[in-house]
Specification:
41% helix, 346 residues, alpha/beta, five-stranded antiparallel sheet, single chain, globular, 11 helices
Length: 346
């Protein structure tokens, strides 16, 4: 009876759903399921999913959920339950569990990079203003208060920049070149630096050495005064000591050492003129460059106060510190052009 009524009324069934107004939505839903299944199969095949936990590619940009996604990191190395991270804009190294990481969406990435670029541009403008004032002062003194027309020349400082991060090294070299400093950049892991620095100093004869890379303080490994609680501070300190064995005097070889949260006191005791990080905070990747430039463009007869060296950096006195240091710029006269020199010989 019920069967006959069903046949007579011709009630719609699953096979006839295409005749209803929901056919298009049904097809879209099926297409969505197929797409998601294909993506999941691809992730399983390529190893991007393991045990239900998302795995990340080397070089991928991520944040840590447990730290409110505050810092942008780059994936450096990974295993099934461990990911090694380097800060994208600050010199911090960190370990994380894969389930604690989140991939940065494009819109968020663009916003973060815009904010960082604004800070970097502001710091660079401050340095250029400072540099222009120093240049005008040199010209005034070299021309006896603009009363004499004198052609003078300058001997710039040579910078040796050791960096544990290849991408940061390139970024720093670009800024050195914009500023107008001679730089010899070397990419070395932090552990290799103590073994290589002496031969590099003897080969390059730098006036300034920057020793940097990545670092971090871990409360689980000890107190702030315990050098063993720091990832790379001991290697930075050993590198400074090896350099001081070659050139002991602080004004003949100016050294900056350290990275994020580095053990400031041990680096200064080892012989660094400037170091990070007094308050164990993170420092920006370009901070060492601005300190080196301030020393390089200050006349050697003048001393650079610690605050003068730090004021154009992005981290300030909480992230950086040091001791009074003489400038390295030497000015001479007269400047003889190549054409004038040829005429004199003829």
């Amino acid at each position: 009876m019920n069967t006959e009524r069903s046949r007579d009324n011709k009630q719609p069934c699953f096979l006839h759903i295409r005749k209803s107004g929901y056919a298009q939505l049904y097809r879209q839903y099926i297409g969505y399921l197929i797409t998601k299944w294909s993506q999941l199969c691809e992730q399983i095949t390529t190893g991007n999913v393991w045990g239900g936990i998302m795995q990340f590619a080397i070089g991928e940009l991520v944040t840590r959920n447990s730290y409110n996604n505050d810092i942008l990191f780059r994936v450096i190395n990974k295993s099934e339950n461990h990911v090694l991270l380097h800060g994208e804009d600050i010199r911090l190294v960190a370990d994380a569990l894969p389930e604690d990481l989140a991939v940065v969406e494009q819109r968020d990435l663009e916003h973060r990079r815009k904010l960082v670029k604004e800070k970097e541009d502001y710091s660079f403008r401050l340095f250029r203003q400072d540099y222009q004032l120093m240049k005008e002062k040199r010209e005034y003194e070299s021309t006896n208060g603009y009363h004499q027309s004198t052609n003078y020349f300058q001997i710039p400082a040579r910078v040796l920049h050791l960096d544990g991060d290849r991408l940061y090294l390139k970024k720093c070299i670009d800024v050195y070149q914009r500023i107008g400093l001679q730089v010899h950049g070397v990419h070395l892991s932090e552990k290799e630096m103590p073994m290589e620095i002496a031969s590099l100093v003897k080969k390059i004869h730098p006036d300034i050495i920057v020793i940097t890379g990545h670092d971090a303080f871990s409360r689980n490994k000890g107190t702030k005064n315990d050098l063993r609680a720091y990832r790379h501070s001991k290697y930075f300190a050993e590198t400074v000591r090896e350099a001081r064995n070659v050139v002991p005097h602080l004004d003949q070889l100016v050294i900056f050492a350290g990275a994020c949260q580095s053990h400031f006191e041990s680096l200064i005791r080892a012989g660094a003129n400037f170091a990070s990080s007094p308050s164990r905070i993170n420092i920006h990747a370009l901070d060492p460059v601005y300190i080196a430039a301030k020393i390089a463009f200050t006349p050697f007869m003048e001393k650079v106060g610690v605050w003068d060296a730090l004021r154009n950096t992005l981290s300030g006195e909480k992230g950086l510190g040091g001791v009074e240091t003489r400038g390295l710029l030497r000015t001479g006269m007269p400047y003889i052009s190549e054409e004038a020199a040829e005429d004199t010989v003829d």
